[in-house]
Amino acid sequence: MNRRNFLKTMGWGGAGAALTGCDLPTTITLEEGKEEVVSYLMPEEYVIPGVGVWYASTCTQCSAGCAIHGRVREGRVLKLEGNPEASLNNGKICMMGQAGVQGHYSPDRVTKPMVRNGDTLTETSWDNAMALLQEKLGAVSGDRFAWFTGTISGHQSALVSNHLDAMGSKQHYVHEVVNNSVSQAVNRDMFGEANPRVRIDKAAMVVSFGADFMGASLSPVHYAGQYAKFRTKKERGLLVQIESKMSLTGGSADLWLPIKPGTEGVLALGMANLLLNKIKVSDAGIPNGVRKLIDEYDISKVAKITGVAGHRIQRVAQLLTERSPSLVLAGPSVEGHAHGYASVAAVMMLNHILGNVGKTIESSGQFPFPQLMAKQGGTADLLAFAEAAKAEKLDAVVFYGSNPVYSAPKALELNEAMNKVGFKVAISQFMDETTEVADLVLPVASYLEDWGTQVPMQQSENSAIHVQQPLMEKLYEDSKGLGDILLSLLKQRNNDEYGKFEDYYAYLRNAFAAMPAAVKNNTTNNNEFWNNTLQKGVIDVASSGGKLKSTVVSFADPVSESANADGLTLVPSPRLGLYDGRHANLPWLQEAPDQISKVVWDSWAEMHPTTAEKLGISNLDLVEVSSAQGSVTLRVVLLKSMHVDAVAVPLGQGHEAYGRYAKGLGVNPLQILDATTDNKTGELAMYSTRVTVKSVGPADSLSIVRMGTGSGDSQAGRKLVATVPVEQLRRTEGS
Amino acid sequence: MSLDNILNHWSDYRKGSEEGGHHDYEHRWAMAINLDICNGCNACSTACYAENNLAVVGKERFEKGQAMHWLRIERYWDQQDKDYPEQGASFLPMMCQHCGSATCEPVCPVAATYHTPDGLNAQVYNRCIGSRYCSNNCPFRVRYFNFYSYYESAWPEPMEQQLNPDISVRDKGVMEKCTFCVQRIRTAKDKAKMEDREVQDGEVMTACAQACPTSAIVFGDTMDENSVVSKLWKKHQVERGVYAKTKLAKKDKDLRGYRIFEELNVDPSVMYLDRVREDI
Amino acid sequence: MVTEKDINEQIAWAKINTDVLESMENPRPAFWVTLAVCVAMVACAVLAEYIQYTEGMGTANLNNPHMWDMYIAAFVFWIGMSHSGTLLSAILHLIHADWRKPIYRFAEAMTTFSLLTAGLFPMIHLGRVWNLYWVLPYVSDRGHWPNFRSPLVWDAFAISTYLTASMLFLFVGMIPDLAICRDNTSGWRKKLYTVLSLGWVGSDRQWRHFRKIYLLMACFLIPLAVSVHSIVSADFAMSIMPGWHITSFPPYFVAGALYSGCAAIITLFILLRYFFRFEDYMTLAIMEKTCKLTFAIAMVWTYLNLIEFASIWYGHDMYNKELLIAKATGPYAPIFWTMIFCGSVLPFTLAFQKLRRHMPTMFVVSLFLNLGMFFERWMIVAPTLSMSQEPHQWDVMYGSIIEWAIVFGSFGWFGMLFLIFVKVFPSVSMYEVKEMVFHRKRSAGEEDLARMTDHSKPVTQTTGGEGA
Q1: How many distinct structural domains can be found in chain A?
Q2: Would you call C334 an interface residue with chain B, using a CB distance cutoff of 8 Å?
Q3: Is CB count within 10 Å lower at the N or C end of chain C?
Q4: Is the ipTM of this complex over 0.90?
């Protein structure tokens, strides 16, 4: 299909969307009748000069897959907003989604295919690139070929699987730094579903063990929407957040409890102990081993281990029984330990004890298109990949949507491993660290130029497939959509089956035509279905059936081996904004202050003032954070929103490549993580690295930059944000 | 402010803000921000960058205090004497409050900032000569000055293609600030006029209110009695006009609505609702 | 103690002419060097302004809370400086304090040049200076007017009026002297003075008109001077910012202006007395009187300061109070206390006759008084911005090299203008010194008018005091 046709199709899709989200030009000009004077002398028929039309598409800035509307004017996409048709994000998107246009228009994009020529990458043509792929991939077979991606879903994911099948390989490494793999394992074992639907909105009380559900989580906008309902319903919901570093969600907690890193599981057991032994909640379904473990942890012991005051634990446990239904969540800081699985299991067990399963934790049902569901990444695959590569088991690997060279700890020796991969192909939009070491770089179209489908991992009540359509013509002729690249690769292997699709668009149309009638709103007209889908951006698919079981698995004692060791525990906290580092090249997100520390354009180490005092460190000092694997040097920011035994170094900075905005800023804490893994799942224990911190004095002239700290973060006696007790709210606005 | 205008509208001109000022308002756009559900996530601020062509200034200039964030999220720690902030952080989205008796307006030597019949505090970039007096006289400190020309540095090719053509890119020497997304108001008003009807509540959404993942920001017209924002203002007994002890005395003290710096008599158009915490 | 005479009344008129005319001729190398230094300072400022103009106001380290800084402080400082001339020439003229006569000319020149310096700052500080004229109510076919409610517009009117008036006053008062110059010079100077003296021949009619216009202008200038600095104070007082919105600002600013002006007069007095050997005219007696006047004004200023502090301290305005405390204890405390020391403590040196008569001491003291006054201006402008109602935007101001260069250069600019002035125009009013000598002698009983006014009589070298 040529570009003109392609855009026409897009125009059809948008015309209807214009009815819902239309904005009209300013028609009142100085002189009546002059409004037709525009620079576009012969616009395309679907372009109305001066009129912005909103087209539906899907955001791919993180793996949440929120549905979006993009405002297109004179053929350029200008502004992204949430698509109100999608119940996942209800017309909202987060800061990362807003900044999507900046990635699309980034001045640092890869615009031409490039091939390795000794130490450098030189530009080449697509024909040459495809010929090279034909040659190289033709020589590989079986598991010596692999795909390495981030979380991927929809038809692209299906095509990746098909390509792997065609290559005879099963090696699909899916890597995400921000993940919930351990929780998934626990959920699968305890409730029978890896990703049951979490209903914060239905809960009267949420106790979150480090789950930053509104921050850098797996679906921040969806959970923020739930949170708003949770807070504004008649009986205002109560949020207790227990973590070592205050997360964005922790900032909104009614009670924020700092906990000694790695002892969350113990605290959960302590609460279980209170619930079962003091408050006499039924212990049905708890295996004997676990029951014994619970009994071991009485309140004084737990208080001592976790550093959380006994009366606080008692009060929270008490409230958990009073406020029903409640919801207990576990986040990455619980998962990221050698005993991560046990800790998460201990936390999730509380839901079983409190009878929350089925009330605030629901079955997400059977998704009718399992092949389209998200292949979710974790860190276990990164470890497996490093292992395989080091053992020279991989001859060709295609990288897409993940940057392992940046995000792998030094301890994995990934650089060395990469050298042992025979042929590395990077399908990439930017020259990131992984793309830089590739042998062949294929410039991929941005998500605002590409077709696709996304299946959100965390579905709302109404399961849906979110459709991604191009919002404008490609900025760079020589970039190709991911689906198109996949199809070309497949055609090289299996032209019989895939040769009939001119391009990915044709493939998708075909796939849509083949969908069952129920999904198509019982229309038999494929064009109508296609156009309706593009206008709406969302295909509602009913997830049928599904019932959770509520059991408790046996788990080991979630005790922290390093709890009494020297030093501090490193918290490599992801930020809503730069996320795992993938958005470090977006200036809006670099310039948006971190929500808690208010730092911009930099990395920082976050510590409690008491800890700093002990170590002889003062605010904004240059400090060296060293683990057994290495060290990073950065400025320290002293905040009381940290546990005294932890030091946080947020993720996202420390890029050695990745364009003008990312390169050379700050440090990457992932580099100094230990290669410890969770005993049960093999996931990287990201939150368990022990570090020492020492002041190396004030060094460079440009100190760390923070927004608005002149008054020492105090309101200085003004009434800017006043806090009122919930009783007052109940009296005036409540029930 | 032509001479004719002054002479013809002398009595209007003399009217104080107690009587609604010198305007016969068509709309009075206003906001209500529920700080209890604001989680400080920055979506509003980033949406504002995207909608209003705000320049990214970079690290050095940010450090100098020359950032251009029309909407900034202030974060305060309220329990500074405690070991840990057990009630979390206090977030405050702060943007131009579009005061009814705006202190920035009378001090501008060239009347580049003035009050529109929409109740907006408008900034006419073309008229601004950059005396910066308005910013000095703004108690909220929400006016941002173009200390440099940012066109080259903030939008390297092809980033300039993202710029919103509905509003200008400001050059150096000009003051700017939140406009309550005046271009969106304009569009909605034009559309309503073409369809021969009034602007409906909810038809105009500022970029920040649209983006807010928890819908903490509500935007609307307080002249429209049925608008959500009007109802919220009424519910919380926050009234337009200047602060009067009697008015405040009648107010139910337990209601959460308030306007920042009410005692300065600037009559802001943004009502905040107190943050709530359950003490456990 | 013998009452010291302001001037030796035995001094001959011919000597007065010779001394003053000589001071205008043959600049010494030191003069050229000083002038070169001043020009170099101006060149630095021009370079800095060029950078600021092309790059943007950000080069001056201005930022969101600190939209104004040194430029406005310097503006107020130079406006304040301009009040001395008016005080000496107009006010003292009206109250018949004739000791002003030998020193008012250079003070008046100071007025004009400070105003010319002050006038530069609003332009330097403006973001889009090319649109400066928009503050004036010129006829625009679009019906645009400036905002008459804005104190900045009042500034534009007040300063331009004051500048015009003070220049005219300086010029009118100089006409008889310019005629003397015309009669005693040749070449380009003669041409210049011929034009400028407007055909002055010293006729009875001319003198009568001259006296009338001079008195009228003096009367006109006094309210103008007071209003100018009141209006400058309105730039701050009309705002709602803590530390700016203060009722006592107009008198406070006027007092501060007279204070710094007097201090500057002492500085220039000593310099002229030393370099032009004007000991006969700028006598210690006059210095003493100037010092006493300065001391009195210093005390008025101190009193007004105390009023401000007290009313803030006993008031209920939290913002003002915390700002005052922050000024005295915060990062600006060294500047604040230097200001208090220089402005309120140091002037007590003026209360001691011994010190008053010791020129090097007085020279240093006068410089410090002005330093204190510069700090006062800065303490008014910046701390308020650093610590306004909104605590999130609290910050501390650090100037940039650009800003310093421009403020520094303004002193060079002033010096340059002044140096040129003293070599082109008589810096001591010849005719008025003659008048002064004449009147003193008359009152001492001398009757021989002819002898007294004879220009050809040889110079008597008797020193003052003996003949009394």
Answers
A1: 3
A2: no
A3: N
A4: yes
